[in-house]
TrEMBL record:
This is Carboxymethylenebutenolidase. One of its GO terms (molecular function) is hydrolase activity. It comes from the Bacteria. InterPro entries: AB_hydrolase_fold, Dienelactn_hydro, Dienelactone_hydrolase-like, TAT_signal. It holds the Pfam family DLH. Residues 69-291 form the Dienelactone hydrolase domain.
């Protein structure tokens, strides 16, 4: 039996990207001080920083089947029953970029929650310094437990005044896969937005069905954002997912960005492509408005 860590397509896309110049990147110590994880690689100095004015933000303690799951939330002040948007993180844990995305969503009027669903095995993933250490932790997360954790997060948001009849989910990298998985699981989800979520999984008994295999079971419309230059997710696999959804008469849309690598929305990494990131963010908002998540 191989002891090599399971290299999923999102990880291949993360690790095989275009070369970058060290200029314009924070030092490692500055990156960690700013709330980023070293396993995420070099961090750009000009990351997007969303302030908390007009928002309530903080740490969440979410009751799950076997204890309490940490999380981070942001919601607009003075809004009764805001819609709820789950934020599914990359493999790097609940670090500053994911927290910033929750604040961006709150500025759009959503009660956004990012659950830290890897807390059981690895503690705080933002403290881990390299990808080989992370992989056994994130690859051993069973889908059944993941989906249960997300359901628990929805219940928590509802208990805090969120309107879960207007439920959305957004995810990046491994979290993009989570969006597809959750769209096949949740009967209450209104819409999802998946950023470069792998359509196909490597063999893993803890992940019974890949997003493509789940095409017949999709319960909510999902928009998928992919980079044509993603070294881990071949365009052919995106096309196959698209075809499977169409064959099963499921509502989905795909945006493929020419020249964009994996992680093109991740404004803290060398893979960031502003034009693709801005366009995808605008399309996500339009999708969530169309399907009744955002007002």
């Amino acid at each position: 039996m191989s002891t090599e860590p399971l290299l999923t397509s999102d990880v291949i896309g993360l690790t095989k990207v275009a070369p970058f110049s060290r200029r314009g990147f924070m030092t490692a110590s500055a990156a960690v001080a700013a709330g980023y994880t070293l396993a995420a690689g070099p961090v750009r100095a000009d990351v997007i920083k969303t302030d908390t004015s007009g928002l309530t933000t903080g740490d969440a303690k979410i009751k799950v089947a076997d204890g309490e799951m940490p999380g981070y939330f942001a919601k607009p002040d003075g809004v009764r029953n805001p819609p709820v948007v789950l934020v599914a993180m990359e493999i790097f844990g609940l670090h500053e970029y994911i927290k910033d995305v929750t604040r961006r969503l709150a500025k759009l009027g959503a009660f956004a929650v990012a659950p830290d669903y890897y807390f059981r095995k690895g503690g705080d993933l933002t403290k881990i310094t390299d990808i080989p250490q992370l992989l056994p932790i994130v690859n051993s997360k069973p889908d059944a437990e993941l989906l249960s954790d997300l359901d628990s997060t929805v219940a928590w948001a509802k208990s805090q005044g969120g309107d879960t009849s207007r439920l959305g989910i957004i995810g990046f990298c491994r979290g993009g896969r989570t969006v597809w998985e959750y769209a096949a699981h949740s009967p209450t989800l209104k819409a999802g937005a998946a950023f470069y979520g792998p359509p196909v999984d490597p063999p893993n008994p803890l992940w019974p069905k890949s997003p493509t295999q789940l095409a017949p079971e999709m319960k909510a419309p999902v928009i998928g954002f992919y980079g044509e230059a993603d070294t881990g997710i071949p365009v052919a696999t995106v096309e196959a997912l698209k075809a499977a959804l169409a064959e099963n008469k499921k509502t989905a849309e795909f945006k493929l960005y020419p020249g964009a690598p994996h992680g093109f929305h991740a404004d803290y990494r060398a893979s960031y492509r502003k034009e693709a990131a801005d366009d995808a963010w605008a399309n996500m908002q339009a999708w969530f408005k169309k399907y009744g998540v955002l007002g």
